[in-house]
Design the sequence.
């Protein structure tokens, strides 16, 4: 006898995610779920994205971490609403967690919600949060072989951000091999090379996201 304990968990999660998706659509809010490993520059990418889009869109951020409020405080310091979710050890966000965060936000006043998922390249891929798009961030220091080691996250991403490209001369990062691997796994996903802390390349990524928000 085989019992799949993941099935009821995912079914319950997906049902609530569908309800969240309806709420977002009713309020014309675009939601992007950022997936990446720790240290890839998720928060710095969010801050750069906010700086590029805040003149046109009303933005809020939901921060997912195992512990601490470090990242949400950085967002709030920029005058952007931020809700912290501490999972207490869980390696991903789930729709039930997200619902509690959404309930404290004024959706009618928002155009964009950016979710910073828990730093992990495996667990978050299976959990629908009701988002419009999942976007993958990889940093140059992590290595060009990550699409081969963690194909799932690259396959579900609607876009891939390659961060910290300014460090490429220091690391043995084969950009051609990386691009080839990503395109083999996900031919439709655009790749945006950026250096978030310096603003390099952010405009192209922000323009893609802005177009998605307007379409939605």
Sequence:
């Amino acid at each position: 006898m085989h019992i799949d304990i993941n099935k009821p968990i995912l079914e319950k999660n997906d049902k609530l995610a569908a309800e969240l998706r309806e709420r977002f659509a009713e309020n014309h809010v675009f939601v992007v779920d950022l997936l990446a490993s720790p240290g890839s520059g998720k928060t710095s990418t969010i801050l750069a994205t906010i700086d590029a889009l805040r003149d046109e869109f009303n933005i809020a951020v939901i921060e997912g971490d195992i512990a601490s409020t470090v990242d949400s405080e950085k967002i709030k310091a920029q005058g952007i609403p931020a809700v912290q979710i501490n999972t207490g050890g869980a390696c991903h966000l789930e729709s039930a967690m997200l619902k509690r965060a959404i309930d404290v936000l004024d959706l009618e006043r928002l155009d964009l919600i950016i979710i910073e998922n828990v730093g992990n390249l495996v667990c978050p891929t299976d959990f629908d949060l009701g988002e419009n798009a999942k976007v993958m961030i990889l940093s140059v220091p992590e290595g060009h072989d990550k699409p081969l080691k963690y194909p799932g996250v690259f396959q579900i991403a609607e876009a891939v951000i390659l961060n910290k490209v300014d460090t490429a001369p220091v690391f043995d990062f084969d950009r051609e091999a990386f691009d080839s691997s990503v395109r083999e796994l996900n031919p439709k996903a655009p790749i945006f090379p950026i250096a978030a802390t310096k603003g390099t390349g952010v405009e192209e990524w922000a323009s893609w996201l802005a177009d998605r928000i307007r379409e939605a």
Observations:
- The chain is about 40% helix and 20% strand.
- The first strand starts at residue 30 and ends at 36.
- Confidence is low (pLDDT under 50) at residues 1-5.
